[in-house]
Amino acid sequence: MSGVVPQIAVIMGPCAGGASYSPALMDFVIMTRNNAHMFITGPAVIKTVTGRDTTMDEIGGADMHATVSGNAHFLVDDDLQAIALVHRLLTFLPSNNTEDPPHRIDADVALTRDESINDIIPDDIAQPLDTHQVIQHLVDTNEFLEVHAGFARNLIVGFARIEGMVVGIVANQPMVMAGALDIDAADKGARFIRFCNVFNIPLVTLVDVPGFLPGVEQERRGIIRHGAKMLYAYAASTVPKITIIMRKAYGGSYLAMCSQEMGADLVYAWPTAEIAVMGAEGAVRILYSRELKEAEDPGSRAAELAAAYREEFCSPYLSASSGYITDVIEPSETRSVIALALRKTLSKRELRPPKKHGTIPL
Q1: DSSP per residue over 204-264, as a string?
Q2: Are 178 and 267 contained in the same domain?
Q3: pLDDT tens digit string along 111-142?
């Protein structure tokens, strides 16, 4: 029934050995903080085989699975909260894959501007933007349910309503790791995107990403393969896809966050957006390394060159003129623009070649 009906597992006690694969196969796993444990082998077996002392909480506690392993999508305090969360989650989901999600569509879309959103956008692009605050300005009141909130916090995913329309939100979070994509974030994003596509939930992507996380460990653990999962998931999705580029969108991470090339139906950018192969500072270090070495004040000269590079090569207006984005919009217009875009694409139908299934880079 996977991909036919939503599947939810609620773990309220021990779940060990082969039994742990039952919740692992579900779409969403909810664990209670006080009583739930999930593991393949317990502390006694691990001690016997490896000689290492460990605890139930360290290898299978709810907090660990919600923040480290990523096996748990939601963490609650007790059984009552778990059941209440199931009820809330179901309010965003269709009963099966042949139905649309439970939209609450009114006759008209409110086209009011939200000037207060400007107050949360830093003047300096080097300062992080809290995407949680942006989301609160875009969605209907109390209509955002974050999924995997404690895991790979540099990427935010969750269900919401915008003018009554159910959507899946995928957003970079610059407050954590500057919003860079890493292996865990790519896995988290790809899984959520594929769920939304199966159950006909439109995708809204909010972009502020400097790139994939650089580092020896990331490369050796397969960031290329894991990052490709996000590109694959977006490219394979046939639901409406609306993208808002808020600020940075550099290199391969620009593609991974549902660019036009990955099949986005409509792509909008704020005037603060920067769309480029790399950031201005990095490009200046590469292109003008000799000039900077010879400059009397390298720091001042680098800033001057970066500003010029940013204006000439990273401008969203340049991207719009080249057809990479649909339009440049003011942040205050974002909610209205998304709502109109969702209404416009509500009847979208996209046929793909017949096949058994694609081969996602697992």
Answers
A1: EEEEEE--BPPSHHHHHTTHHHHHHHHHHHHHH--S-EEEEEEEEEEHHHHHHTT-GGGT-
A2: yes
A3: 899 999 999 999 888 899 999 999 999 999 99
